[in-house]
Amino acid sequence: MFFGEYEYKVDEKGRVPVPPKFRHEFREGMILTRGAEKCISAYPVAEWERLANSLAAQAVTSSNLRKLNRIIFGAAFSLMLDAQGRVALPASLREYIEISDTAIIVGANTYIEIWDKELWKQEKISAEEQVWQIIESLEAK
Prior knowledge:
Elements: E1 5-9, E2 15-17, H1 20-23, E3 30-34, E4 40-44, H2 45-56, H3 63-74, E5 77-79, E6 86-88, H4 91-97, E7 102-107, E8 112-116, H5 117-139
Antiparallel strand pairs: 1-7, 2-6, 3-4, 3-5, 4-8, 7-8
């Protein structure tokens, strides 16, 4: 389980450290892709395979599923952490999240998210404003 929020500098080569307590989960590599919001979602290989299998089990006749598959899998990269526990963020994903010099790594249960610092501030404000409505909608189900 991934949880917590961590701030790191992005180096001149686009590398960002993965929090030390998460590195063991990525020992077999990680899959980076576009997140639903303007972030990068980073999955351990086993979790990525579960996601892929779940999507593969859906009916391919759905145009929304085909679009989702294109976005998720078309923007995905399989990467390994370097000896210092960093991951090199691909240029296309760095551009997508408009990252400057500071990344925020956020634990999201079964995966992590990588955010630009300013976009993360905006997302947190938005989420905090809606948290009780979200909780209530989940309780109603």
